[in-house]
Amino acid sequence: MAHERRIRDLAGMTWSEVAEAIDRGAGVFVPVGSTEQHGYHLPLATDVILPTELAFAVADELDFLVAPPIAYGYRSRPLSGGGQGFVGTTSLKARTLMALVEDVLGELIRQGFERLAIVNWHFENQNFVYEAVCLALEHHRESSARILVAEHPFAELSEKTMQLMFPEGFPGWDYEHASIMETSLMLHLRPEMVLFDRAVDDASKRHPWYDVVPAPEDFVPASGTLWKATQASEEKGRVAWNEIVSQFRSAVALELGGSAEKRG
Ligand SMILES: [Zn+2]
User: Fold this and answer.
1) Over the stretch 180-211, which tens digit does the pLDDT of each residue have?
2) From the candidates 124, 151, 176, 202, which is the catalytic residue?
3) Cα separation, 243 vs 195, whole angstroms
4) Has 168 been annotated as catalytic?
5) Would you kindly state where each structural domain of the chain is located, as residue ranges?
6) Which residues of 50-84 are buried (b: 16+ CB within 10 A; e: fewer)?
7) How many A from CA of 27 to the centre of ligand 1?
8) What integer is the mean pLDDT of 72-82?
9) Known catalytic membership, residue 177
10) Catalytically annotated residue among 53, 63, 102, 122
11) 188 assigned to active site
12) Confidence (pTM)
Protein backbone atom coordinates (compact mmCIF):
# COMPACT_ATOMS: atom_id res chain seq x y z
CA MET A 1 0.00 0.00 0.00
CA ALA A 2 2.74 2.43 1.03
CA HIS A 3 4.65 1.39 -2.06
CA GLU A 4 1.66 2.00 -4.31
CA ARG A 5 1.21 5.51 -3.00
CA ARG A 6 4.90 6.25 -3.49
CA ILE A 7 4.79 5.39 -7.18
CA ARG A 8 1.79 7.72 -7.65
CA ASP A 9 3.41 10.57 -5.71
CA LEU A 10 5.49 12.40 -8.32
CA ALA A 11 7.83 14.00 -5.78
CA GLY A 12 8.43 10.66 -4.07
CA MET A 13 9.48 8.97 -7.31
CA THR A 14 12.85 8.90 -9.02
CA TRP A 15 13.31 10.76 -12.28
CA SER A 16 13.58 7.51 -14.21
CA GLU A 17 10.31 6.21 -12.73
CA VAL A 18 8.61 9.45 -13.84
CA ALA A 19 10.15 9.09 -17.31
CA GLU A 20 8.71 5.56 -17.56
CA ALA A 21 5.30 6.81 -16.45
CA ILE A 22 5.33 9.55 -19.10
CA ASP A 23 6.39 7.01 -21.75
CA ARG A 24 3.41 4.79 -21.01
CA GLY A 25 1.07 7.83 -21.17
CA ALA A 26 0.41 8.43 -17.47
CA GLY A 27 -1.39 11.64 -16.58
CA VAL A 28 -0.69 14.08 -13.76
CA PHE A 29 -2.91 15.78 -11.19
CA VAL A 30 -2.02 19.16 -9.72
CA PRO A 31 -3.94 19.72 -6.46
CA VAL A 32 -4.44 23.39 -5.59
CA GLY A 33 -5.49 24.59 -2.14
CA SER A 34 -4.72 27.27 0.42
CA THR A 35 -3.14 27.86 3.80
CA GLU A 36 -6.20 29.26 5.49
CA GLN A 37 -7.94 29.25 8.84
CA HIS A 38 -10.63 26.58 9.15
CA GLY A 39 -12.20 27.35 12.51
CA TYR A 40 -10.99 26.19 15.94
CA HIS A 41 -11.04 22.54 14.94
CA LEU A 42 -9.55 22.00 11.45
CA PRO A 43 -5.96 22.47 10.24
CA LEU A 44 -4.86 25.35 8.01
CA ALA A 45 -4.00 22.76 5.36
CA THR A 46 -7.58 21.46 4.99
CA ASP A 47 -7.93 22.84 1.44
CA VAL A 48 -4.65 21.15 0.45
CA ILE A 49 -5.32 17.78 2.08
CA LEU A 50 -8.75 17.27 0.50
CA PRO A 51 -7.85 17.77 -3.21
CA THR A 52 -4.62 15.80 -2.73
CA GLU A 53 -6.56 12.87 -1.27
CA LEU A 54 -9.07 13.15 -4.12
CA ALA A 55 -6.26 12.92 -6.65
CA PHE A 56 -4.70 9.88 -4.94
CA ALA A 57 -8.12 8.21 -4.65
CA VAL A 58 -8.38 7.80 -8.44
CA ALA A 59 -4.70 7.89 -9.47
CA ASP A 60 -4.16 4.13 -9.69
CA GLU A 61 -7.16 3.18 -11.78
CA LEU A 62 -6.76 6.11 -14.22
CA ASP A 63 -2.95 5.87 -14.28
CA PHE A 64 -2.17 9.35 -12.99
CA LEU A 65 0.66 10.70 -10.88
CA VAL A 66 0.02 13.37 -8.23
CA ALA A 67 2.29 16.42 -8.41
CA PRO A 68 3.24 18.25 -5.21
CA PRO A 69 0.16 20.28 -4.26
CA ILE A 70 0.11 24.05 -4.45
CA ALA A 71 -0.28 24.81 -0.76
CA TYR A 72 -1.03 28.54 -1.00
CA GLY A 73 -4.08 30.10 -2.58
CA TYR A 74 -5.66 33.40 -3.46
CA ARG A 75 -6.77 35.84 -0.75
CA SER A 76 -9.33 34.46 1.69
CA ARG A 77 -12.59 36.39 1.36
CA PRO A 78 -14.58 37.21 4.50
CA LEU A 79 -17.89 35.84 3.20
CA SER A 80 -16.48 32.53 1.97
CA GLY A 81 -13.35 31.87 4.06
CA GLY A 82 -13.32 34.30 6.95
CA GLY A 83 -10.94 36.75 5.30
CA GLN A 84 -7.32 37.67 5.82
CA GLY A 85 -7.75 38.77 9.45
CA PHE A 86 -7.05 35.34 10.98
CA VAL A 87 -3.58 34.33 12.09
CA GLY A 88 -2.31 31.50 9.93
CA THR A 89 -4.15 32.49 6.77
CA THR A 90 -1.27 33.01 4.34
CA SER A 91 -2.27 33.92 0.81
CA LEU A 92 -0.96 34.84 -2.62
CA LYS A 93 -1.86 37.74 -4.85
CA ALA A 94 -3.88 36.59 -7.86
CA ARG A 95 -0.99 37.29 -10.22
CA THR A 96 1.40 35.21 -8.07
CA LEU A 97 -1.02 32.28 -7.97
CA MET A 98 -1.58 32.44 -11.72
CA ALA A 99 2.16 32.61 -12.41
CA LEU A 100 2.85 29.71 -10.06
CA VAL A 101 0.20 27.44 -11.56
CA GLU A 102 1.17 28.43 -15.10
CA ASP A 103 4.85 27.66 -14.46
CA VAL A 104 4.16 24.28 -12.84
CA LEU A 105 1.85 23.25 -15.70
CA GLY A 106 4.36 24.49 -18.27
CA GLU A 107 7.08 22.36 -16.71
CA LEU A 108 4.89 19.25 -16.62
CA ILE A 109 3.92 19.76 -20.29
CA ARG A 110 7.56 20.32 -21.26
CA GLN A 111 8.45 16.96 -19.69
CA GLY A 112 5.87 15.25 -21.89
CA PHE A 113 2.70 14.88 -19.83
CA GLU A 114 -0.33 15.14 -22.10
CA ARG A 115 -3.17 14.34 -19.69
CA LEU A 116 -3.28 16.91 -16.90
CA ALA A 117 -5.88 17.95 -14.38
CA ILE A 118 -6.12 20.78 -11.89
CA VAL A 119 -7.96 19.74 -8.72
CA ASN A 120 -8.83 22.91 -6.84
CA TRP A 121 -10.49 22.98 -3.44
CA HIS A 122 -10.17 26.61 -2.29
CA PHE A 123 -13.23 28.56 -3.45
CA GLU A 124 -11.33 31.80 -4.11
CA ASN A 125 -8.87 30.19 -6.58
CA GLN A 126 -11.42 29.59 -9.30
CA ASN A 127 -10.96 31.60 -12.52
CA PHE A 128 -7.32 32.21 -11.60
CA VAL A 129 -6.45 28.54 -12.08
CA TYR A 130 -8.48 28.51 -15.31
CA GLU A 131 -6.54 31.52 -16.58
CA ALA A 132 -3.22 29.84 -15.67
CA VAL A 133 -4.23 26.74 -17.65
CA CYS A 134 -5.03 28.87 -20.72
CA LEU A 135 -1.72 30.73 -20.47
CA ALA A 136 0.28 27.51 -20.02
CA LEU A 137 -1.25 26.00 -23.15
CA GLU A 138 -0.71 29.20 -25.16
CA HIS A 139 3.00 28.81 -24.49
CA HIS A 140 3.00 25.14 -25.52
CA ARG A 141 1.08 25.12 -28.77
CA GLU A 142 3.33 22.31 -30.03
CA SER A 143 2.08 19.95 -27.33
CA SER A 144 -1.12 17.92 -27.60
CA ALA A 145 -1.72 18.32 -23.86
CA ARG A 146 -5.29 18.53 -22.55
CA ILE A 147 -6.02 19.90 -19.11
CA LEU A 148 -9.15 19.23 -17.12
CA VAL A 149 -9.89 22.15 -14.80
CA ALA A 150 -11.92 21.17 -11.73
CA GLU A 151 -12.35 24.63 -10.23
CA HIS A 152 -15.04 23.21 -7.97
CA PRO A 153 -13.99 19.88 -6.51
CA PHE A 154 -17.42 18.33 -7.16
CA ALA A 155 -20.74 18.88 -8.88
CA GLU A 156 -24.05 18.81 -7.04
CA LEU A 157 -24.39 15.85 -4.73
CA SER A 158 -27.39 13.51 -4.85
CA GLU A 159 -30.54 14.52 -3.01
CA LYS A 160 -30.08 11.60 -0.62
CA THR A 161 -26.57 12.73 0.33
CA MET A 162 -27.69 16.36 0.71
CA GLN A 163 -30.51 15.22 3.03
CA LEU A 164 -28.05 13.30 5.15
CA MET A 165 -25.54 16.18 5.25
CA PHE A 166 -27.97 19.05 5.79
CA PRO A 167 -31.14 17.79 7.47
CA GLU A 168 -31.93 21.37 8.56
CA GLY A 169 -31.49 22.79 5.06
CA PHE A 170 -28.53 23.63 2.84
CA PRO A 171 -27.06 27.12 3.37
CA GLY A 172 -24.99 27.28 0.12
CA TRP A 173 -21.41 26.15 -0.47
CA ASP A 174 -19.92 29.58 0.32
CA TYR A 175 -21.25 29.22 3.90
CA GLU A 176 -19.90 25.74 4.15
CA HIS A 177 -16.32 26.81 4.97
CA ALA A 178 -14.93 24.76 7.89
CA SER A 179 -18.47 23.55 8.50
CA ILE A 180 -20.48 20.36 7.95
CA MET A 181 -18.93 19.20 4.68
CA GLU A 182 -15.25 19.94 5.27
CA THR A 183 -15.37 18.76 8.88
CA SER A 184 -17.13 15.52 7.91
CA LEU A 185 -14.65 14.82 5.12
CA MET A 186 -11.72 15.44 7.45
CA LEU A 187 -13.32 13.19 10.12
CA HIS A 188 -13.46 10.48 7.47
CA LEU A 189 -10.01 10.99 5.91
CA ARG A 190 -7.83 12.47 8.68
CA PRO A 191 -9.61 12.00 12.03
CA GLU A 192 -6.33 12.52 13.90
CA MET A 193 -6.15 16.09 12.56
CA VAL A 194 -9.64 17.15 13.70
CA LEU A 195 -10.09 18.72 17.16
CA PHE A 196 -13.79 17.95 17.06
CA ASP A 197 -14.47 18.90 20.70
CA ARG A 198 -13.53 22.48 19.72
CA ALA A 199 -15.92 22.63 16.74
CA VAL A 200 -18.63 25.31 16.99
CA ASP A 201 -21.73 26.43 15.12
CA ASP A 202 -21.29 30.01 14.00
CA ALA A 203 -22.25 32.42 11.20
CA SER A 204 -21.53 35.98 10.18
CA LYS A 205 -24.21 38.42 11.39
CA ARG A 206 -24.70 39.52 7.79
CA HIS A 207 -24.06 37.62 4.56
CA PRO A 208 -25.17 39.94 1.75
CA TRP A 209 -25.08 39.12 -1.96
CA TYR A 210 -22.38 41.79 -2.56
CA ASP A 211 -18.98 42.35 -0.99
CA VAL A 212 -17.43 45.38 0.72
CA VAL A 213 -13.73 46.27 1.04
CA PRO A 214 -12.55 46.63 3.72
CA ALA A 215 -15.05 44.12 5.06
CA PRO A 216 -17.42 45.30 7.80
CA GLU A 217 -16.82 43.43 11.07
CA ASP A 218 -20.19 41.73 10.98
CA PHE A 219 -19.20 39.89 7.76
CA VAL A 220 -16.73 37.80 9.77
CA PRO A 221 -17.71 35.16 12.38
CA ALA A 222 -15.28 35.28 15.30
CA SER A 223 -14.56 31.55 15.21
CA GLY A 224 -13.78 31.40 11.48
CA THR A 225 -16.46 28.71 11.12
CA LEU A 226 -19.13 29.92 8.71
CA TRP A 227 -21.87 27.42 9.58
CA LYS A 228 -22.68 24.41 11.80
CA ALA A 229 -19.49 22.42 12.24
CA THR A 230 -20.89 20.42 15.19
CA GLN A 231 -23.32 18.69 12.81
CA ALA A 232 -20.44 17.00 11.01
CA SER A 233 -19.87 13.26 11.34
CA GLU A 234 -17.58 10.58 10.02
CA GLU A 235 -20.54 8.86 8.37
CA LYS A 236 -21.53 12.04 6.49
CA GLY A 237 -17.93 12.35 5.41
CA ARG A 238 -17.74 8.79 4.12
CA VAL A 239 -20.97 9.03 2.12
CA ALA A 240 -20.08 12.42 0.60
CA TRP A 241 -16.50 11.37 -0.11
CA ASN A 242 -17.54 8.25 -2.03
CA GLU A 243 -19.81 10.36 -4.19
CA ILE A 244 -17.17 13.05 -4.76
CA VAL A 245 -14.56 10.45 -5.73
CA SER A 246 -16.94 8.75 -8.12
CA GLN A 247 -17.89 12.07 -9.81
CA PHE A 248 -14.24 12.99 -10.18
CA ARG A 249 -13.26 9.57 -11.52
CA SER A 250 -16.00 9.74 -14.18
CA ALA A 251 -15.05 13.28 -15.24
CA VAL A 252 -11.36 12.48 -15.67
CA ALA A 253 -12.06 9.16 -17.42
CA LEU A 254 -14.49 10.87 -19.81
CA GLU A 255 -12.27 13.83 -20.72
CA LEU A 256 -8.77 12.38 -20.43
CA GLY A 257 -9.28 8.61 -20.58
CA GLY A 258 -6.74 6.09 -19.34
CA SER A 259 -3.23 5.53 -20.60
CA ALA A 260 -4.17 2.20 -22.18
CA GLU A 261 -6.58 4.06 -24.44
CA LYS A 262 -3.85 6.48 -25.47
CA ARG A 263 -1.39 3.72 -26.34
CA GLY A 264 -4.02 2.03 -28.54
ZN1 LIG B 1 -11.79 24.84 3.01
Assistant:
1) 999 999 999 999 999 999 999 999 899 999 99
2) 124
3) 25
4) no
5) 2-263
6) bbbbbbbbbbeebbbbbbebbbbbbbbbbbbbbbb
7) 26
8) 93
9) yes
10) 122
11) no
12) 0.95
